[in-house]
Each structure stands twice: as C-alpha cells, then as structure tokens.
Write a structure and sequence with these properties.
With 50 residues, the chain is mainly α. 36% of the residues lie in helices and 0% in strands. The mean pLDDT is 81.
C-alpha cells in the first residue's frame, strides 16, 4: 500500500482470530493490540498527527 501510495490503508482480520477464546477483552481493543505489533501498521500510526 505504501509503495502504491494508496490513499487509504485497510487491514482486516479473519473472524475468530482476534479475541482469544475465553477472553474478556473487547474485539476493538484486541484488534489494536494485534495491529500495534505489525511494523507497517505501527509505523503508520506513529506518523499520524492532529
């Protein structure tokens, strides 16, 4: 996406792969916990500013 200079970036997780079985963590929170470990996503997040 970066090389193509895509105007929007999107990452999707397969159903059932984000929240571990028996976890009380919400899906949105669990998504960010995973996304922050992916270098390309983490780097993009840290480059954002208001």
């Amino acid at each position: 996406m970066k090389a193509r200079r895509a105007p929007a970036n999107f990452a999707a997780f397969e159903t059932g792969t984000v929240v571990p079985s028996g976890s009380t963590t919400s899906a949105p929170m669990a998504t960010w916990q995973i996304a922050s470990t992916i270098p390309g996503i983490r780097n993009w997040i840290t480059r954002q500013s208001r």
